[in-house]
C-alpha cells in the first residue's frame, strides 16, 4: 500500500471512530449546559453552519441561528423548530457594523448575553484549480475582519459561568502557516505571525492589508503567499493567528469569567462554498465545532483542531 492509500485508510478509520463517538451520549455530570445556555451561530442558514445549529440544539442548547438574509434564515429556523428544537432567529451580516450592533443589542435584551459563539460565516470564490483574486477584498473582509468584528463585539456579552464561555471559529487547513504545500514562503512574514508572544492585532491586520494592496497593484503573485486559493487561505490563516492572539489575551480573565477560543478545519465539505465538490458531509463537518463548544472540562484555548484532534497551525 502506498503513502496516499495509507493516508486514505487512516482518514476513513478516523471517520468511523468519530461516527461511533457521536453515538455516545454526554452523561449528566458532563453536561455543563442546559436550555438556558445560548449559542450563536453565524451564517447558519445553510451548509456547515446550519448543521452546527442543528446539532447544538439537538444537545439541548438554545441556538440563535443567524443569517444575513432574513427570509432564508427564517426558513432554516422553521425546519429546526418543526423538529422540536429550541432555535431562534436574528438577522446578522458580520461585515455590516450596524447589523452587528443591532444584533448585540437584541441578544443582550433578549437573553442577557451568550455562552457560545460559533464563527462560521465565510465566503470563497475559487473552485477546482482556479486561483483568482478578483474577490480578494470581500474574502478578507468577510472571513477575517468580519469574524474579528464578531469576536470583539460579543466578548463583552459572554456570560460568566463556572464552565467558561466558548468561541469556535471554522477555518481551514489551507490557512496553515507552515504547510509545505500552501504555507507562506516569506520567512519574515511567517515568523511574525508564528510567534504568539509578540503577535498583535496590528501584525495580522497589516499582513492582510499588505496582501490587498499587492492585489490592487498586481504584485501579489511574487510575494510568497499561499498559492492555492490565496485570498481564502490567507483569510483563514489570519483567523487562526487571531485565535492564538485572543487566547493569550483572554487567558488573563479570572475564574468564573473564562472564555476559551479555538478554531478547526471541517475538511473538504460538500457545500455551496466548494461547489459541492467536497467529500465530507455537512453533518460530519459540524462535529468538531459542536464537540469543542460542548467540551466538558474545557481548559483548551488557542488551539487548532480537525476531526476532534489537535493539529499544528
Ligand atoms: N466547505 C468546505 O470545504 C470548508 C472547508 C473549510 C472551511 N470551511 C468554512 O466553513 C464555513 C461554512 O462554509 P460552508 O462550506 O458551509 O459554505 P456555505 O454553504 O457557502 O455557507 C456559508 C455561509 O456563510 C454565510 N455568509 C457569507 N458571508 C456572510 C456575511 N457577511 N454575514 C453573514 N453570513 C455570511 C452565507 O450566507 P448566504 O447564504 O447569505 O451567502 C452562508 O450561510 C465557512 O467559514 C468556510 O470558509 C468550509
What name is given to the CATH topology?
A: Rossmann fold
> What's the mean pLDDT score?
96
- Total number of distinct structural domains: 1
- Note poorly predicted spans: none
Structural class: alpha/beta
Widest sheet: strand ordering: 3-2-1-4-5-6-7-8
CATH class label: Alpha Beta
Strand share of the residues? 5-15%
- Helix content percent band: 40-55%
* Gyration radius over CA: 19 Å
Number of DSSP-assigned strands = 8
Number of helices: 9
Per CATH, the superfamily is NAD(P)-binding Rossmann-like Domain
Distance between the termini: 29 Å
Proper CATH architecture = 3-Layer(aba) Sandwich
Which of globular, elongated, flat, extended, rod-shaped describes the shape? globular
Order of helices and strands: HEHEHEHEHEHHHEHEE
Instruction: Give every kind of bound small molecule, once each.
Output: NADP nicotinamide-adenine-dinucleotide phosphate
Q: Describe the main β-sheet briefly.
A: 8 strands, mixed
What can you tell me about this protein's structure?
This protein is 44% helix and 12% strand. The two termini are 29 Å apart. It has one domain: Rossmann fold (3-Layer(aba) Sandwich). The chain has an eight-stranded mixed beta sheet, with helices on both faces. Helix 2 crosses helix 9 (282-294), helix 4 (97-111) runs parallel beside helix 5 (136-154) and helix 5 (136-154) runs parallel beside helix 8. The protein is α/β, with parallel strands linked by helices and 313 residues long. It is globular, with a radius of gyration of 19 Å. Bound molecules: NADP nicotinamide-adenine-dinucleotide phosphate. NADP nicotinamide-adenine-dinucleotide phosphate is lined by residues 42-43, 45-49, 67-69, 92-95, 120-124, 142, 146, 170, 172, 265-266, 268-269, 271-274, 278.
Amino acid at each position: 500500500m502506498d503513502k496516499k492509500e495509507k493516508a486514505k485508510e487512516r482518514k476513513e478509520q478516523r471517520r468511523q471512530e468519530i461516527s461511533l463517538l457521536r453515538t455516545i451520549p454526554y452523561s449528566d455530570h458532563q453536561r455543563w449546559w442546559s436550555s438556558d445556555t445560548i449559542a450563536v451561530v453565524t451564517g447558519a442558514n445553510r451548509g456547515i453552519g446550519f448543521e452546527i445549529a442543528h446539532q447544538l440544539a439537538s444537545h439541548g442548547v438554545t441556538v440563535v441561528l443567524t443569517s444575513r438574509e432574513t427570509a432564508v434564515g427564517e426558513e432554516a429556523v422553521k425546519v429546526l423548530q418543526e423538529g422540536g428544537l429550541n432555535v431562534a432567529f436574528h438577522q446578522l451580516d458580520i461585515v455590516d457594523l450596524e447589523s452587528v450592533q443591532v444584533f448585540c443589542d437584541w441578544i443582550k435584551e433578549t437573553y442577557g448575553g451568550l455562552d457560545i459563539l460559533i464563527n462560521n460565516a465565510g465566503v470563497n470564490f475559487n473552485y477546482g484549480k482556479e486561483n483568482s483574486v478578483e474577490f480578494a477584498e470581500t474574502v478578507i473582509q468577510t472571513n477575517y475582519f468580519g469574524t474579528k468584528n464578531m469576536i470583539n463585539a460579543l466578548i463583552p456579552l459572554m456570560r460568566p459561568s463556572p464552565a467558561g464561555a466558548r468561541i469556535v471559529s471554522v477555518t481551514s487547513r489551507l490557512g496553515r502557516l507552515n504547510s509545505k504545500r500552501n504555507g507562506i514562503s516569506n520567512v519574515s512574514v511567517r515568523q511574525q505571525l508564528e510567534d504568539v508572544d509578540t503577535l498583535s492585532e496590528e501584525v495580522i491586520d497589516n499582513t492582510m492589508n499588505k496582501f490587498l494592496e499587492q492585489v490592487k497593484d498586481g504584485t501579489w503573485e511574487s510575494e510568497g503567499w499561499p498559492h492555492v486559493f490565496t485570498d481564502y487561505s490567507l483569510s483563514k490563516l489570519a483567523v487562526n493567528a487571531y485565535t492564538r492572539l485572543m487566547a493569550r489575551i483572554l487567558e488573563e480573565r479570572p475564574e468564573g469569567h473564562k472564555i476559551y477560543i479555538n478554531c478547526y478545519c471541517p475538511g473538504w465539505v460538500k457545500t455551496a462554498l466548494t461547489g459541492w465538490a467536497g467529500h465530507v458531509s455537512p453533518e460530519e463537518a459540524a462535529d468538531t465545532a459542536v464537540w469543542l463548544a460542548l467540551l466538558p472540562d474545557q481548559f483548551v484555548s488557542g488551539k487548532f483542531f480537525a476531526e476532534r484532534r489537535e493539529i499544528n497551525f
